[in-house]
């Protein structure tokens, strides 16, 4: 394993691939990262397309990843999380482009290896994505002294203005189920997500400022929207030392005309000790 970690980043390719089967509801999947692999300080774009053979409004994401970050975090992530969206994702051609954007200058490397599998509410396979992301080079030293992030999550509140295009935005949480409701006064096919965060990991305080352009077809329709997420099940556990991760700042979305759609504010959640069940 240490030999693999010592290999230069340039030897890795195919960072995100389709692992779906012939019976999946999402077919003709094409995923492209350009350039691949992603390098720190270099602009990149992610393009995705596929053909959905049925409306999908309720689904479950099974996440099985090994994540390393900042040279000090090493954490297996095994989660199962239900998600519902209204209106649902319509049948037909789906395309999405994210970028161009540039990764912020974070210390250490970022690695995510594993799979994300999506099924619908009938437990039928929708899609499967395989990740082999290795950004910014790898560091053998990090493998010798690994610690795990104590992921506490964040408190999320609404900082939208009356003029925002997503009206009556409400975010609530009950018994591990997060619910988001609102009403869009316009259809949205292009937007920019503006991230202005400060991430505190142990003694590190890392500013993250990103503008993420996104285009999506068939887009988000005008009208009422509702998203529910959870309750998630799984375990983030380790026998290594635990460190805290605190996130503070805002995430704003603007439409193609640079008019604000919504604004969210993040503050650190209450700390819990020991193993964390999500």
Catalogue the unreliable spans.
1-13, 137-152, 237-242, 272-278
Question: Which secondary-structure class do the elements indicate?
Answer: mainly beta
Radius of gyration (Å): 19 Å
Helix content: under 10%
Number of domains: 1
Structure description:
- The chain has 278 residues and is mainly beta.
- The protein has one domain.
- The chain contains two helices and 19 strands.
- The protein has helices at 2-6, 140-144, and strands at 16-18, 26-34, 43-52, 56-69, 73-89, 92-102, 110-120, 125-135, 148-151, 154-158, 166-174, 177-184, 188-201, 204-220, 223-229, 233-236, 242-255, 260-268, 276-277.
- Strands 1, 4, 5, 7, 8, 11, 12, 15, 16 and 19 form a ten-stranded antiparallel beta sheet that branches. Strands 2, 3, 6, 9, 10, 13, 14, 17 and 18 form a nine-stranded mixed beta sheet that branches.
- A hairpin with a 3-residue loop joins strand 4 (56-69) and strand 5.
- The longest helix is centred in the N-terminal third of the chain and has 5 residues, at 2-6.
- It is globular and about 45 Å long.
- The two termini are 29 Å apart.
- Residues 1-13, 137-152, 237-242 and 272-278 have low confidence and may be disordered.
């Amino acid at each position: 394993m240490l030999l693999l970690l010592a290999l230069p980043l340039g030897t890795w390719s195919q960072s995100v691939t389709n692992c779906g089967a012939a019976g999946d509801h999402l077919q003709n999947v094409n995923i492209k990262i350009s350039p691949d692999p992603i390098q720190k300080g270099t602009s990149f774009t992610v393009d995705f397309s596929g053909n959905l053979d049925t409306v999908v409004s309720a689904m479950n994401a099974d996440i099985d990843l090994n994540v390393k970050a900042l040279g000090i975090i090493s954490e297996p992530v095994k989660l199962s999380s239900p998600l519902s969206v209204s209106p649902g994702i319509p049948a037909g051609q789906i395309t999405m482009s994210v970028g161009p954007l540039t990764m912020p200058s974070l210390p250490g490397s970022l690695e995510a290896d594993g799979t994300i599998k999506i099924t619908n509410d009938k437990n039928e396979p929708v899609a499967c994505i395989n990740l082999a992301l290795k950004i910014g080079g790898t560091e053998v030293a990090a493998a010798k002294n690994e610690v795990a992030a104590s992921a506490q999550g964040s408190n999320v509140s609404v900082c939208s203005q009356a003029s925002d295009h997503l009206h009556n935005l409400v975010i609530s949480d009950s018994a591990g189920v997060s619910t988001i409701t609102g009403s869009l006064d316009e259809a949205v096919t292009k937007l920019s997500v503006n991230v202005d965060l400060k991430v505190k990991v142990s003694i590190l305080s890392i500013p993250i400022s990103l503008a993420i352009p996104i285009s999506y077809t068939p887009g988000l329709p005008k009208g009422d929207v509702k998203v529910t997420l959870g309750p998630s099940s799984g375990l983030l556990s380790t026998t290594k030392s635990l460190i805290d991760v605190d996130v503070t700042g805002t995430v704003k979305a603007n439409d193609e005309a640079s008019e604000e759609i919504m604004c969210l504010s993040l503050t650190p959640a209450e700390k819990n000790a020991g193993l964390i069940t999500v």
